[in-house]
Queue: 4 jobs
Job 1
Amino acid sequence: MNRRLFLGVLGAVGTGGTLSLLNGTINANQEQTTTVNIEKLELSDEEWRQRLTPDQYNVLRKEGTERPFTSPLNKENREGTYVCAGCELPLFTSETKYDSGTGWPSFWASIDGHTGTKTDFKLILPRTEYHCARCGGHQGHVFDDGPEPTGKRWCNNGVALKFIPKSEA
């Protein structure tokens, strides 16, 4: 087990704090509860298959993981919003994005109430998985090895996100 994975696993059981940023509230808590009233989107498996690409379906609906360093979003540096590829709920702002060097788009905080979490034991040791609060689509995992001000790394599958530039918002 490498140091990053070990620290990430240890951090998965911790909790974070909250931070107000710009015009919205950003939440860095790992054990989040949705406080925003978001109408749930529930579709049949067949409807999800029609709506999503095979890669998006594998990640969002089957909790898969894309290969590292394959997402064009790794190099996205414009101002804007990152939304769920399944339902377009805003999940992250460009102000919270950073290059973690892990090969996946990473953020130091999510938009408050727009993600939910659960404990994931797929690698035996516990990790905190997060998902879209509207459609339940799997996004990635949150770790305690990120930058200040939160110390969190929201490690996201690029295929689970769409980027909306500020000029189009």
Job 2
Amino acid sequence: MNIKILFPIIIIAILFVISCDKNPVIQNEEELITEFKYTLVPRNGGSTSTFTFMDLDGEGGLPPDITSDTLMSGVVYDGKLSLLNVYSDVIQNITGEIKNEGDAHQFFYESSGELSDKLSVVYNDADINNNPIGIITVITTTGTGTGNLKITLRHEPNKSAVGVTSGIITNAGGETDIEVTFNVIVQ
């Protein structure tokens, strides 16, 4: 092959490699969540309970505002999470994004204190592989007491690891997008 023909081909190949984007868009980047609300509606009527987390200045800076609520003993609640990013001029609803990318997300619910055996959470939604997401839940209270309910959103957990689809975070891995602990009173 003639060097006059080979030289331009090499130059074009070098220019193509140099011009490639060095900063590709990252799929499933961790979400910025500045507003987190967990709403619990009693199945047989009664008062709705709402738990909120607001950190409008984003991570760092001022501490978040966390508001807890009271639950009633012996009640089944339908739970729903709502997550927003209100840090910028445009309010982003993160809930839909998490649902659409459900195979890469899972919420974990851990009760502790006097509520560790009196407050149970069951998943009521699933991703495309029929594994839990945790945006929609069912909570059952079986006794009175005080304690905490910690809700953790994991990005890219290993849903096939032991216990993960049952809501046990120990083997989940992945990155924590947000973790909020609410003080809970069950009357």
Job 3
Amino acid sequence: MDRVQAALGDADPEYFARFQPPPERGRESAVLMLFGPCEGGGTDVVLTERSHDLRSHAAQVSFPGGSLEPGDATPTDAALREAREEVGIDPAGVEVVAELPELFLTPSRFVVTPVLAWWPEPQPLGPIDAREVARAARVPLDHLLAPRARFTVTHPSGYRGPAFEVDGLFVWGFTAMLLTRVLQLADLDRPWDDSVHRDLPERFQRGVQRDLRRIELEEGTS
């Protein structure tokens, strides 16, 4: 956590600068990047698998989070509220470390604030509403960082990025990119072969194309 904070103190870190929101902004949202101690040693991170029946981003692995609501004074408030509502995380047990720079997701036009946090005494967690979250997991970083768990995938838009497959979760897209960058800032990343490429599972390809069509329709009627 200390290393990430120190790295963020640098002026305009290159990764975050590339994703700065445009002047017209977008839909404000936040995600909680929650790390904690593993049983037996090491560190893990909380990830969720979205319900396979959702209208958008179905079945995708993500951090707990969502859009800011009127009662949220800050992105941190939104991230903590969503984590409680989605997987039962008690905000009282979470130590917020920092709000990372905003990232603009062009396809969905979301402005996302990643909230970096630590919980010294992790508690049981699980889906509160199965219609939104299919699974919640604390994934050990040792599993994520194992070279055999890492590869690249190509987004339907053509962007090629990092991905992980671990503990039954296929992590790609925004979540994989952000997780990779934070682990780099924490000086925890390990060498892996980024020439290893896997096809994006069909269930995600269908979902992305559906999301893109929905966004085009929304923009056409706005």
Job 4
Amino acid sequence: MSSSPSPSELTLRRQLIATCRELERRGLNQGTSGNVSVRLSANPDDGFLLTPTALAYDVMQPEDIVHMRLDGSHSGPRPPSSEWRFHLDIMRARPDAHAIIHTHSAYSTSLACLRRGIPAFHYLIALFGGNSIRCSDYATYGTQELSNHVLQALTDRTAALMGNHGLIVLGPNLERALAMTVEAETLAMMYWRAIQVGEPVILPDDEIARVRAKIATYGSYGAEKHGTGL
């Protein structure tokens, strides 16, 4: 790091690394696949922290984490993830996104390779903002074109599949983003299994709207602090 981080920033860097290692422990990423970012503070001008490119999570140290600013500049001894563009564009466009997790998890990626989003086959799809988790078009990794596709798929949503690529999830903090990444991959697994037998019954939009309303008043302790709580 170019200068010593504050205690709060150092804690956040360690939490980011812990999140990456938990993703690997759960089998949601492997080796150097995927990437994670988190805002430094509620002030957008402070920018965000992002995992570096081509560095395995099990050897990553706090000083390896890249500090990115919303003007696209960055600091630190390592270059940022090759996917820094969509992290930057999401942080600019979505003030509700304080943490972003991108994985190559097996079931989500399998559906993404089919260009098949996840419809409302299960009521918990409502956790992600609507009646589906959309699948974006494909573009080469690290390009502005991919970032544009991802932003479009994330309109009014907090998760999307990335065509022939993987999964992306937004959250208000790293803990919540991790919990929702697990939930999205679980839904992808259940949907993938269901379509091996046939086409599942899709819940109507008005039911998803009712579920979303119930989630909004469910109770922040269970939902925000310990995953879905549902």
